[in-house]
Write a structure and sequence with these properties.
The complex is a heterodimer of chains A (362) and B (289).
Chain A lengths: L26 H12 L5 H18 L2 E4 L5 E5 L2 E6 L2 E4 L6 E4 L7 E5 L1 E4 L2 E4 L1 H4 E3 L5 E12 L2 H6 L10 H15 L4 H5 L3 H18 L4 E12 L5 H70 L1 H19 L1 E4 L14 H6 L14
Antiparallel strand pairs in A: 1-4, 2-3, 2-5, 6-10, 7-8, 9-10, 10-11
Helix pairs in contact in A: 5-7, 8-9
Chain B lengths: L2 H21 E4 L3 E7 L2 E6 L3 E4 L5 E7 L3 E4 L3 E4 L5 E12 L2 H7 L3 H20 L4 H7 L1 H16 L4 E12 L2 H71 L3 H16 L5 E4 L17
Antiparallel strand pairs in B: 1-4, 2-3, 2-5, 6-8, 7-8, 8-9
The chains are: A alpha+beta (362), B alpha+beta (289).
Chain lengths: 362, 289
């Protein structure tokens, strides 16, 4: 009984279908061919050994196989794993004794957790991407995982993926690992500085689990595509960011204010000092000048005091009286009578010269 | 050789092939097998390769040797702090003993339904001993191990080994999620307010310090300026004093004259006695009084 003929209940082959058995040569055709070649001279005695020999040779040739540069050959003998072979031409004993599988080992595969790329846009898968953080918050994380087969035999024989989903186990492990890692981080760490570390931890956690399964899979990279607060609270988170900006803005504005008024005050101070310096210097200079003038005059005064005094007096009076309106009143004229000087009226009609003469001479 | 003889050989060959195919069987690397004789399990083969059995009366059942996955529906679990958690988990298992397996659950479908019950009940029991946050963050590894070990005791009787039980997702039921979102929101609002207030605080500090500096700067400048002016005044006074001291009376005279000149401006009305300046007004006399 061969392994693929036992119907239901039996397991599937690593890839659903096994390696295709070589087509058995059509005996009727071969027989005909020999007949035609050797004509009637061919009899049963010679035909059968030759025919069997040819078939044997063809059969032996079916054991030649080539492992591609991106593949690894895995050979089984009667189903049992024998050896792995590197790229290049090889030979295995023909079916059904030995079989060969050639999984691609250099090809890096990629799975998406939390989203699915549909053409150019990505569709969010909320159930996968929302997770609890260590500080009891909920965060929305999308990540991609890249992996490849690094042990062909292990990948074929140790873990079974459900049919038509070769990444099933890797996906499960990835979801477990990312939540395990996020569960130990705070939301702020995950959102800001912790990304690198989260990626590294997720990768190592995944690798450890897959190694425990002897899956023969190597995680090449774990990349956080998006780390964001959930949609319900994203507005509040954005507001925090803008509040942080507001803080900086307020400080900048205040500093701008300081930068505006302080230099102006400095200028004002300098101006006041300059003015004071100027005042001081001017005052002294003026004093010196005044004194100089006085001393010069005094010198002349000492030479002829009487005359100088009179001259100065008269010159001054002259000048003063020239400018002013004058009312000369003899004190004796007012005796006994109430002296009345209509000064108001005098001022009004500023010109008439008669009136001041009123009390001139008795 | 006549045709009858060759026909006989042919028949023998065909019979031989049929008998051989009923005797020889191979077990693939991913399989293990159980030989059943007339419905009675005889022997388990876990070794891949070529094997033999008695033809016709013995039958071979093959089972997978690989790690198999049991992905379970998520379900609600109550943590020790009475919080509802939606737990989604998966398990990796393998058929450890084909004989027991065949006898108890027969095939994978049977095994899965049995495993479902076992893993669920152990999951509930173990998770119930931990608080929600322990499940989410701290104790995950530990409790997954505990679930696996506990469940394994029960699965052995089915010839099944649970290699790994993993909690994939631990989510909150919708109403709890909403509560968390509300809390997250208020937390952030608080933070935003704090940032803004901090900005305000800092700004007020900067402004008031600048104002203070300006006041001080201007006052100091005023002080210095006054000092300078005072010095100027003092120096001037000293200069005046020194000079005028030589003849105070003359100074007074000269200064008075200057004051008159300045004080009596155009339009002032003077009421004067006719003496002094006017003493000559009444008549010529050189020697007054």
């Amino acid at each position: 009984m061969t392994w693929n003929s036992n119907g239901g209940g039996g397991p599937q082959r690593p890839w659903g279908q096994g390696p295709r058995p070589p087509q058995p040569p059509d005996m009727e055709k071969v027989y005909q061919m020999f007949r035609d070649k050797f004509g009637g001279s061919m009899d049963g005695k010679r035909f059968w050994p030759i025919a069997i020999g040819v078939v044997m040779v063809i059969w032996m040739f079916t054991g030649i196989y080539v492992v591609g540069p991106d593949e690894e050959g895995v050979v089984t003998r009667f189903g049992r794993y024998i050896e792995s072979t590197i790229p290049g031409p090889h030979y295995h004993l023909p079916y059904p004794i030995e079989e060969v599988y050639k999984p691609k080992v250099t090809q890096v595969r990629r799975i998406e957790i939390g989203y699915r790329t549909r053409g150019r846009s990505a569709v969010d898968v909320a159930a996968e991407s929302l997770m609890l953080t260590g500080d009891e918050n909920i965060i929305d994380i999308d990540l991609s995982v890249q992996y490849r087969v690094n042990n062909a035999a292990d990948s074929l024989f140790n873990v079974r993926n459900p049919p038509r989903d070769p990444s099933y186990v890797v996906r499960n492990v990835a979801e477990t690992a990312i939540r395990q890692v996020i569960g130990r981080n705070s939301i702020d760490e995950a959102l800001t500085i912790g990304k690198e570390r989260i990626q590294a931890n997720t990768l190592s956690t995944m690798q450890k689990i897959l190694d425990d399964y002897k899956s023969g899979i190597l995680i090449v990279a774990v990349q956080l595509q998006q780390v964001a607060p959930p949609e319900e609270v994203v507005h509040a988170f954005k507001d925090v960011a803008s509040a942080r900006e507001d803080r900086v803005r307020a400080i900048n504005e205040a500093e701008g204010y300081a930068n505006d008024i302080l230099p102006k005050a400095k200028g004002e101070a300098a101006k006041q000092l300059q003015e004071a310096e100027g005042y001081k210097t001017a005052k002294v200079a003026r004093a010196k000048g005044d004194v100089q003038r006085f001393l010069s005059l005094h010198k002349e005064y000492t030479r002829s005091p009487e005359v100088t005094v009179s001259r100065l007096y008269l010159e001054t009076m002259e000048e003063v009286l020239l400018k002013t309106d004058k009312v000369v009143v003899d004190p004796r004229a007012g005796q006994g009578v109430l002296p009345y000087l209509p000064l108001d009226r005098l001022k009004e009609n500023a010109s008439p010269p008669q009136q001041p003469r009123k009390g001139g001479e008795p | 050789m006549n045709s009858r003889a060759s026909m006989g050989i042919g028949i023998i060959l065909v019979v031989l092939v049929i008998v051989l195919s009923q005797t020889i069987f191979t077990i693939h690397q991913v399989e293990q097998a159980l030989v059943v004789q007339l419905g009675k399990p005889i022997r388990a083969f876990t070794d891949p390769g070529i094997h033999f059995k008695i033809p016709f009366i013995q039958e071979v059942f093959t089972f997978d040797r690989r790690l198999l996955v049991l992905d379970q529906e998520s379900q609600e679990v109550l943590s020790s702090d009475k919080k509802n958690l939606k737990v989604d988990n998966y398990a990796q298992w393998r058929i450890e003993d084909p004989l027991k397996f065949y006898q108890t659950v027969r095939n994978e479908a049977g095994a899965e339904s049995r495993l479902n019950d076992i893993v669920y009940s152990n999951l509930r029991e173990v998770l119930g001993q931990f608080t929600m946050m322990e499940i989410v963050s701290g104790e995950r590894l530990n409790l997954m191990k505990q679930i696996r070990e506990q469940a394994n005791i029960q699965t052995r009787q089915y010839g099944i080994e649970l290699v790994d039980v993993r909690i994939k997702r631990t989510d909150l039921p919708p109403e709890n999620s909403k509560a968390v979102y509300r809390r997250m929101q208020t937390e952030r609002e608080r933070q935003a307010k704090q940032y803004r207030a901090e900005g305000e605080e800092e700004a007020v500090k900067i402004r008031s310090q600048a104002n203070r500096e300006r006041e001080v700067m201007l006052a100091e400048a005023y002080g210095t300026a006054q000092k300078l002016r005072g010095e100027g005044d003092a120096t001037a006074a000293a200069i005046y004093g020194e000079a005028f001291q030589q003849d105070p009376r003359f100074y007074e005279f000269v200064r008075s004259l200057e004051a008159y000149r300045k004080a009596f401006v155009q339009g002032t009305t003077l009421v004067l006695e006719p003496d002094g300046f006017f003493r000559y007004f009444k008549g010529p006399s050189i020697n007054p009084r």
